[in-house]
Amino acid sequence: MSLRTVASKFVELCRQGKNFDVMRTMYEPNNVSVEGDGKETVGQGPVIKKSEDWVADKTFHGETVADPFFNGATPDQFAVYFTLDVTPKSTGRRITLQEVGVYTVKNDKITREQFFYDGDH
Amino acid sequence: MSLRTVASKFVELCRQGKNFDVMRTMYEPNNVSVEGDGKETVGQGPVIKKSEDWVADKTFHGETVADPFFNGATPDQFAVYFTLDVTPKSTGRRITLQEVGVYTVKNDKITREQFFYDGDH
Q1: Which of A119, A120, A105, A114 is nearest to A26 (CA)?
Q2: Binding-face residues of B in 49-88 toward A, CB within 8 A
Q3: Residue A17 pLDDT
Q4: Cβ distance of A115 and B71 shorter than 8 Å
Q5: Residue A98's beta-bridge partner residues?
Q6: Per-residue pLDDT tens over the stretch B7-44
Q7: Chain B contact set for A74 (CB, 8 A)
Q8: Contact flag B116-A78 (C-beta cutoff 8 Å)
Q9: B100: chain A residues, CB-CB within 8 Å
Q10: Shortest Cα distance from B19 to chain A (angstroms)?
Q11: Which of A38, A70, A118 lies at the smallest CB-CB distance from B118?
Q12: Fewest CB within 10 A of the end CB: N or C in chain B?
């Protein structure tokens, strides 16, 4: 597959709400996930667990994903812009979170994801 | 200034439509600009010229800029998501372009910008 094919599949599944299918089928076993504070989580299992924990204390209303985006100087990467419509159970207040994700792909699998955002997510 | 202060100033000026003020006052003289196809333009003057040429064949209706975003693993960078509402003079058809920009800051100046998008911009 080309980077573009991987990126399109990624976005399509996310738009169907199948984010965990993405993690289970498109992540390399040693995938590295880097949150906004710079903290790295290493390994497909721990990365999935991190997302399960994140979802567990929220009501998830939906997300938007644009678009994917590319840059020829980094031909193994694509970027997306997410908005996440959630109600944290701790506050009960519905909010929209925004973030940019930069994904690195090798041999058709996502090997690294780095999220840019502001504040707690 | 902190990275956050530079990023906030960048976004504030862009939201006021002062993109060329950003380039004139916030770019380092040897700034590098990388377009979606990977092509690099080097130097503040050539980078400004590139944008002048880009604007020249369009009617520019406005832009949105979110938000800026950060990641602690790359503490000299911020990311933004742009939508650009333009009518290319060649087609007369109004379109919305989207892109992610990743900016690198050193000594309070923008030294590099890398744009991720899809298709012609």
Answers
A1: A105
A2: 66-75, 77-81
A3: 93
A4: yes
A5: A83
A6: 999 999 999 999 999 999 999 999 999 999 999 999 99
A7: 38, 114
A8: yes
A9: 69, 79-81, 100
A10: 21
A11: A70
A12: N
With beta carbons under 8 A apart, name residues in chain B contacting A39. Answer: 72
Average pLDDT, rounded, for chain B:
97
In this prediction, residue B1 has a pLDDT band, given cuts at 50, 70 and 90, of: confident
Residue B119 has pLDDT above 90, yes or no: no
Whether omega before A68 lies within 30 degrees of 0, making that bond cis, reads: yes
Given phi > 0 = left and psi -120 to 50 = alpha, else beta, which region is A117? beta
Instruction: Please enumerate in sequence order all residues whose Cβ is within 8 A of that of B30, keeping only pairs 6 or more positions apart, or say none.
Output: B42, B43, B44, B111
Residues 6+ apart with CB under 8 A from B67: A98, A118, B11, B80, B81
The tens digit of pLDDT for each residue in A29-87 reads 999 999 999 999 999 999 999 999 999 999 999 999 999 999 999 999 999 999 999 99
For residue A85, which amino acid is it? D
- Give the gap in angstroms from C-alpha A116 to the nearest C-alpha of chain B: 5
Q: Is the Cβ–Cβ distance between B69 and B61 less than 8 Å?
A: no
Question: What's the first-to-final CA gap in chain A, in angstroms?
Answer: 32
Reduced to 3 states (helix: H, G, I; strand: E, B; else coil), residue B18 is coil
Q: In chain B, pLDDT over 90 holds for what percent of residues?
A: 97
Closest chain B residue to A81, measured at CA: B81
Q: Which residues pair with A90 in a beta bridge?
A: none
Report chain A's mean pLDDT, rounded to a whole number.
97
> Which of B70, B84, B115 to mutate against chain A (most A CBs within 10 Å)?
B70
